[in-house]
Amino acid sequence: MPVDGRQDDGSHFRKSPTGPWVAPPRAPTSPPSASPHDVASRRRRPVWSVVVFILLISSLGIRAYRDLSRPEAWAYWKESYFAPTMTSSSIAKTDLHGFARGRPVLAIRGTIGAATAGWLRERLDEAHLVAGDAVLLSSPGGNLDQAIIMGEIIRSRGLATAVGVADSSGQIRRSYCASACVLVYAGGKPRYGIDGSVLGVHRFVAPAPGRDPVAETQRTAGTVLSFMTKMGVSSSVVEAMSETRDVRWLGPKEASAMNLVTDPVVRP
Questions:
Q1: Quick one: pLDDT at residue 25?
Q2: CA distances from residue 12 to 6, 18, 25 in whole angstroms, order as listed
Q3: Left if phi > 0, otherwise alpha if psi is -120 to 50, otherwise beta: which for 57?
Q4: How many Å apart are CA 149 and CA 190, to the nearest integer?
Q5: What integer pLDDT is reported at residue 227 of this predicted model?
Q6: Distances in Å between the alpha carbon of 8 and those of 12, 17, 41, 57, 268?
């Protein structure tokens, strides 16, 4: 029988298509078993990764707890996401004897809270107010720092301010603006006066644990004076504030003399 005709089933050799008989490739040998040291090392790596991850999460959790455990932090988050301390309503057109005639108005009322400045910015954006439109205020006051920021926002957008409330029909009625609200009102340009609405001022006291209350009060007075001067209000309003811890209600003539009200009082 010719050599080429032999069956190679079970044979240790086969014919190469380009040459003589060659041995088939050997089956791959099994990899060497890992040493106990390598196995232990691989086991330790995930354990250390888990430990580092836990420590990182714990440190972030502790820091977040410290931040959120402060009363002002809780107040900020509560107001930002759950319960705003002010409410707003938009009035498409107002015609109150010259007050923002034919212009849209955003009416806001309530206490100025720890996150009200951001809330106001969002409401103004939603109302699409532009320079010359107005913000109608009704508030007993609240957070001084937020009030200053709110006044800055109103001034930066060229909005007017007035004191009053709007009923369901859009009619404006008299109201009051006291304490920190007066700083929000001061941001307007112009600042309208409404007959029967009043502005109330008093001495600001900023409690700070561990600090000299007299020094803190003086620092706060300086901050308020600087802001009012920037808004074009006479320094006499700060003097009126410093004279009493109780609210002092300013009459129309007095508020105009302080340049707090810049436009003639109009009747609702």
A1: 56
A2: 13, 18, 10
A3: alpha
A4: 18
A5: 97
A6: 8, 14, 49, 67, 113
> 33: phi > 0 → left, psi -120 to 50 → alpha, else beta; which?
beta
**Chain position carrying tokens 């720890």:** 114
| CB atoms near residue 73 (< 10 Å) | 14
* Rg of the chain taking only CA atoms, in angstroms: 38
239-243 long-range CB contacts below 8 Å, 24 or more apart?
A: 240/201, 241/201, 241/202, 241/203, 241/204, 242/203, 243/203
Predicted pLDDT of residue 245: 86
66, two tokens? 């410290």
Pick the CATH number of 86-266 from 3.90.226.10, 3.90.79.10, 1.10.287.3510, 3.30.70.20: 3.90.226.10
Q: What is the pLDDT of residue 259?
A: 96
- State how far the Cα of 221 lies from the Cα of 201, in Å rounded to an integer: 12
8 Å CB contact between 116 and 143: yes
Gap between the terminal Cα atoms of the chain: 125
**Which DSSP string do the residues of 99-155 spell out, in sequence order?**
EEEEEEEEEEEE-B-TTHHHHHHHHHHHHT--TT-EEEEEB--B-HHHHHHHHHHHH
Residue 108 tokens, joined: 């806001």
Q: What is the mean pLDDT of each run of 10 residues along the chain (268 residues)?
A: 47 48 55 53 60 67 53 61 85 69 89 95 95 95 96 97 84 92 97 93 76 82 95 95 92 93 76
Task: Write the DSSP assignment of 45-99 as a string of letters.
Answer: HHHHHHHHHHHHHHHHHHHHHHHHTSHHHHHHHHHHHT--SEEEEEEEEEEETTE
Question: What letter represents residue 85's amino acid?
Answer: T
CA atoms within 13 A on the CB side of 145: 7
